[in-house]
User: Which sequence fits this backbone?
């Protein structure tokens, strides 16, 4: 049996009070996804990005070098994760904790959000990735889109229409439009976290962190609809990212970009945004596009500029 030590664990990952059984859902070089009754637990190779439902594990080489297999049974204890007679990860209670919560630390004072959003939008337009959410909605001017609440062209296209419904619902506090836009975007696109889901999570973070006061109620409604509808419309991995994302808990690269947007110098923000854009095939760009659309929607709502992001702890 391979014995490994937990190097760090997300402080927001709830370990079971009693032993519980799960199974390996997927295996990749840098991480393993374990499905339990409470959701996903991801074992991440040391040195990789932190995620809110992750456990960092001291592992030389990658997970593909082990004898682990998909659907293999997993026993999760309060201080260890055991995979048959193949592998055990110990020390969950005694290892350090890390946080994936993104909150502003205003080291440089209040920033002007408008030019920063325009810079991020330009980065997305220049990304040159032939896929993701921009393959569905096109390279619209998000600022004009969110002010006018509709795309300048292709008005009959399904996905731009769903974005239009979402933006209008947020600005007018109309729950049925928010719900319709969300349900039309969840599960859109291939991959473990579809492009529509990444866009929605980015959008929610945008209205929650960029001038959130007047969007606060609409953002809470959006979070509720995401949690309620994701289980029937999208993938198990995306459900987990949404479950944590509505509480303001993000993938490390996304959290770092959000923090730098609100507090860092512009060059730091650009650097963090470029790092985010390298995440997955399209996930990083899709998250950033969503953040830009959400940010411009918040500005269109006329919110103030000095509030921290909103988290919805009861979802």
Assistant:
């Amino acid at each position: 049996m391979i014995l490994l030590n937990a190097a760090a664990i997300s402080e927001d990952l709830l370990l079971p009070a009693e032993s519980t059984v799960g199974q390996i859902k997927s295996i990749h070089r840098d991480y393993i996804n374990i499905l339990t009754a409470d959701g996903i637990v991801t074992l991440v190779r040391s040195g990789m990005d932190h995620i809110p439902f992750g456990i960092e594990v001291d592992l030389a080489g990658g997970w593909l070098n082990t004898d682990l297999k998909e659907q293999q049974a997993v026993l999760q204890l309060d201080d260890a994760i055991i995979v048959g007679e193949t592998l055990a990860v110990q020390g969950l209670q005694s290892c350090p904790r890390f946080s994936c919560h993104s909150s502003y630390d205003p080291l440089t004072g209040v920033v002007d959000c408008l030019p920063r959003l325009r810079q991020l939008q330009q980065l997305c337009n220049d990304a040159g990735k032939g896929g993701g959410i921009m393959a569905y909605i096109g390279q619209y001017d998000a600022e004009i889109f969110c002010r006018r609440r509709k795309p300048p062209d292709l008005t009959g296209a399904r996905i731009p229409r769903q974005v239009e419904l979402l933006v209008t619902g947020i600005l007018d506090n109309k729950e049925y439009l928010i719900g319709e836009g969300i349900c039309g975007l969840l599960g859109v696109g291939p991959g473990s976290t579809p492009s529509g889901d990444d866009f929605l999570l980015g959008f929610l973070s945008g209205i929650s962190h960029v001038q959130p006061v007047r969007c606060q109620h609409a953002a809470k409604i959006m979070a509720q609809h995401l949690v309620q509808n994701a289980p029937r419309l999208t993938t198990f991995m995306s459900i987990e990212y949404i479950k944590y994302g509505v509480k303001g808990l993000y993938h490390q690269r996304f959290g770092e970009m959000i923090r730098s947007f609100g507090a860092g110098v512009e060059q730091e923000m650009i650097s963090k945004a470029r790092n985010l854009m390298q995440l997955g095939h399209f996930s990083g760009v899709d998250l950033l596009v969503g953040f830009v659309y959400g940010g411009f929607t918040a500005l269109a709502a006329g919110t103030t500029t000095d509030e921290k992001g909103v988290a919805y702890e009861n979802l």
About this structure: Residues 113-302 form one domain.
